[in-house]
Amino acid sequence: MNSLDQIFVTLDHRLVALVPAALQPLVAMAIIIAAIMAVFGTCFAVTTIFERKILGRMQNRYGPNRVGPFGLLQPMADGVKMLTKEDIVPTSADKVVHFLAPLVLTVPIWLAFSVLPFGRNMTAIELDAGVLFFFAIGSASELAVFMAGWSSQNKYSLIGAMRGIAQMVSYEVPLVLATVPVLMLTGSLSLVDVVSAQSGRWNVFTPWGLAGFGLFMIAATAESNRSPFDLPEGESEIIAGYLTEYSGFKYALFFLGEYLGLFAVTGLAVTLFLGGWQAPLKVLQWVPSWLWFAAKFGTLIFGFIWVRATLPRLRLDQLLSLAWKFLIPLALVNLLAAAVWYWSRQWSPAFSSLEARWLICAAIIGFPYFWLGRGLNGVSAEKRQYTYAE
Q1: pLDDT at residue 386, as a whole number
Q2: What predicted TM-score, i.e. pTM, was given to this entire model?
Q3: How many CB atoms lie within 10 A of CB 355?
Q4: What does the alpha-carbon distance between residue 158 and residue 243 come to, in Å, rounded to a whole number?
Q5: Are 146 and 89 contacting, i.e. CB atoms less than 8 angstroms apart?
Q6: Cα 285 from chain centroid (whole Å)
Q7: Residue-wise pLDDT tens digits, 109-143
Q8: How far is CA 176 from the centre of its chain?
Q9: What is the rounded average pLDDT of the residues 32-43?
Q10: How is 327-378 classified by DSSP, letter by letter?
Q11: Are 75 and 63 in contact, with CB atoms under 8 Å apart?
């Protein structure tokens, strides 16, 4: 089964060998870029149709069912519609910035995929600081949102951009903090090393890893503007937020960028907490590594869709309170739990067993979780007094 596991690597090497040696580095880069864009471009089309189908099923209605068999060609119809719609730019808009904003959002996200290990020996660029590169590239999304809102010269666009930036900055902090324990215990910023360190046990099967995974997924949902954190595009309040003055292919690029961002953070979550391309059991290692990555990736994407169909949108004050009053303090507590988990191996036998370490770290995380949760809900010991208009 090793040949099946390395089929894409072998194919890449054979294609590169067909060209002169002087051109091989350029051809190798072109093949990798084309493969990444083809795979995740297809994921974008497939996810949009299946998300609408799943949402329809969960909400007791039909999804798209008119274009092609069972409506499966709907993404093609949507693409043709976006390409043929008129590109309307407001007269007072800053036309250069208005044009560049969707490109600034979309192009850097493609670069983020280059450091993710999709399978054994299937990393486009193996950087020693891959995690740092990933977050540095991802920070361009705030700039793109601001460019779109400011250049449109529209109050709804500007308000939507400010809300979007406040949300992204607020949730980027717990997103990074949830990643730190993994890097601490791995001892490396390389995502390849992070996957290798999980060959015996996935990080999610530790108390700090389980808490970090939950924090990471909540923050990733907000970073991707997914429900219930889709306030920058609150149709009932600010029309379409920073996208109000966009149409046609520019709008499609923003739509594509949001889904690509979702795919990127999902791939990072799989790599950091779910073992990356590692099989869950040694007896299942005969399954190709890239297939394990795809299965975990698809499962998390389904989870995002499920959450969208289940939870209502939060208010802005609730969203910011959740980040600054709950997620960030709990992420800092999780750092302490990860340190205790590491150093407790050297304690006396009564406290160094796996069960004792689990109990200690769970208590370190659990008590602040309930305490912070009560503070977030505004629960107090005093009896509430309600006043009514006469």
Answers
A1: 62
A2: 0.91
A3: 7
A4: 10
A5: no
A6: 26
A7: 999 999 999 999 899 999 999 999 999 998 888 89
A8: 12
A9: 93
A10: IHHHHHHHHHHHHHHHHGGGS-HHHHSHHHHHHHHHHHHHHHHHHHHHHHHT
A11: no
DSSP track, 102-148: HHHHHHHHHHHGGGS--STT--S---TTHHHHHHHHHTHHHHHHHHH
Mean pLDDT of the chain: 88
Q: Are 186 and 197 in contact (CB under 8 A)?
A: yes
The beta strands (E) that lie in the chain are given as none
Query: Residue 282 has which token pair?
Result: 């040694």
Residue type, 123: T
- Encoded tokens for 382: 């005093």
User: 10-40 burial string, b = 16+ CB within 10 Å, else e?
Assistant: eebeeebeeeeeeeeeebbeebbeebbeeeb
Element (H, E) at 257: helix 248-273
Name the one residue in this structure whose structure tokens are 């044009």: 99
The mean pLDDT of 146-157, rounded to a whole number, is: 87
CA distances from 75 to 48, 65, 247, 337 (A): 7, 12, 17, 45
Residue tagged 């602040």 (tokens): 368
- 17, two tokens: 């060998």
388 pLDDT band (50/70/90 cuts)? Answer: low
Task: Give Cα separations from 271 to 106, 338, 339 (angstroms).
Answer: 22, 18, 21
Buried b or exposed e, range 360-376, using 16+ CB within 10 angstroms:
bbbebbeebbeebeeee
Pick the closest to residue 340 from 329, 326, 327, 351 (CA basis): 351
Cβ-contact 243, 152 below 8 angstroms: no
Q: What tokens does 296 get?
A: 């975990």
Residues 6+ apart with CB under 8 A from 318: none
**CA neighbor of 117 nearest in space, from 218, 197, 206, 15:** 197
Least confident of 60-64, 222-226, 285-289, 344-348: 344-348
Listed residue (343, 345, 362) closest to 210, CA to CA:
362
228 token code pair: 């219930």
Q: Which residue has the tokens 């007896």?
A: 283
